[in-house]
């Protein structure tokens, strides 16, 4: 668990987002169902972080290639980042 494990100091607790339901290895659930419920919360956290940047260059996104969250939600996030931040660089690592 990232909140209480040995690496808990690496992440600020206010920046962690978690839910009780997962996408069950289903792209459609990750993109259209669960993703739609969480995307605005995630984008708001990202917006708050980008407001603190003097010269935002872009985004590095690390995610899994499989599963509903890794593939479905990540593709939704990349779509929305493109809409919100236009020509800023967006690099994906799988």
From TrEMBL:
Recorded catalytic reaction(s): these are: GTP + H2O = GDP + phosphate + H(+)
BP GO terms, sorted: microtubule-based process
Q: Which Pfam families match?
A: Tubulin
Cellular-component GO terms for this entry: microtubule
Locate the Tubulin/FtsZ GTPase domain: which residues?
2-94
**Which keywords has UniProt assigned to this entry?**
GTP-binding, Hydrolase, Microtubule, Nucleotide-binding
Asked if the Swiss-Prot or TrEMBL record annotates the protein with the keyword DNA damage, the reply is no
Instruction: Provide the function of this protein.
Output: Tubulin is the major constituent of microtubules, a cylinder consisting of laterally associated linear protofilaments composed of alpha- and beta-tubulin heterodimers. Microtubules grow by the addition of GTP-tubulin dimers to the microtubule end, where a stabilizing cap forms. Below the cap, tubulin dimers are in GDP-bound state, owing to GTPase activity of alpha-tubulin.
Q: What is this protein called?
A: Tubulin alpha chain
What is the source species? Wuchereria bancrofti
């Amino acid at each position: 668990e990232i909140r209480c494990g040995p690496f808990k100091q690496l992440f600020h607790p206010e920046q962690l987002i978690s839910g009780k339901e997962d996408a069950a290895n289903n792209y459609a659930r990750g993109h259209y169902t669960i993703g739609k419920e969480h995307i605005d919360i995630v984008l708001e956290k990202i917006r708050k972080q980008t407001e603190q940047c003097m010269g935002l260059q872009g985004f590095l996104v690390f995610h899994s290639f499989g599963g509903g969250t890794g593939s479905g939600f990540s593709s939704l996030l990349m779509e929305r980042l493109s809409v919100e931040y236009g020509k800023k660089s967006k690099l994906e690592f799988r």
